[in-house]
Specification:
Blueprint: H1 31-40, E1 43-53, E2 59-68, E3 74-77, E4 79-82, H2 89-101, E5 117-122, E6 130-131, E7 137-145, E8 156-162, H3 164-167, H4 170-175, H5 180-190
Parallel strand pairs: 1-7, 5-6
Antiparallel strand pairs: 1-2, 1-4, 2-3, 2-8, 5-7
Length: about 200
């Protein structure tokens, strides 16, 4: 199953715009421009694995999103989206966390975000553990503690909080799109939450 990262409509707050963008928002690509770009260049994404931690900083829960695909299938995924032209990785990560988890999630981003891994999604299955039939995408993946209330927005239907063991299970991995079950396991291993 391929990954279907949402491509929401522009909000008008993009700070920069490349030549050839839409007239109303020069930093946003039209559908035709996006399709052409995806055929020629790797796209840059950020992905966030939302977690809840205890007082000692140990991961006790992992937030997994439930989404409906354009063809009506239900899949599990994590926070994900493109980095916009002129946007810092930190700002892109915060924007996507807020878009997917709601404004009251209160993510705790480090002052200098460093990904736990770089995932490469290819349109041909089997090149890596990650697959996206639309494009070659490079994704910077982060574990992000959240302290507030998560109320999904955009195309996310709900956030399910699982224990690290449940999130790393084969059953959950089978429901994850684009190989993201592997990404969940890498995230949990990076913070010492897998036993």
């Amino acid at each position: 199953m391929s990954v279907r990262t949402p491509d929401p409509e522009p909000t008008g707050d993009e700070p920069f715009g490349p030549p050839g963008g839409s007239a109303s928002n020069p930093a946003w690509l039209s559908e035709v421009e996006l399709e052409e770009t995806r055929r020629r260049l790797p796209m840059l994404y950020v992905e966030g694995v939302p977690v809840r931690v205890d007082g000692m900083g140990q991961v006790i829960q992992v937030g997994i999103l439930l989404r409906a695909t354009p063809v009506g299938e239900m899949t599990r995924t994590i926070v994900s989206g493109r980095v916009r032209y002129g946007e810092t990785v930190r700002d892109a990560l915060f924007r996507h966390l807020e878009n997917d988890l709601g404004p009251m999630a209160f993510p705790l981003l480090p002052t200098q975000p460093t990904p736990f891994t770089v995932a490469e999604y290819f349109p041909l299955p089997g090149v890596t553990a990650f697959h996206d039939d639309r494009q070659h995408a490079v994704s910077l993946a982060f574990v992000v503690p959240v302290t507030g209330t998560c109320e999904p927005r955009q195309d996310a239907l709900e956030v399910t909080w699982l224990t690290p063991e449940e999130a790393a299970s084969d059953a959950v991995a089978a429901e994850m799109e684009g190989g993201r079950g592997t990404l969940i396991r890498l995230a949990l291993a990076s913070v010492g939450a897998l036993r």
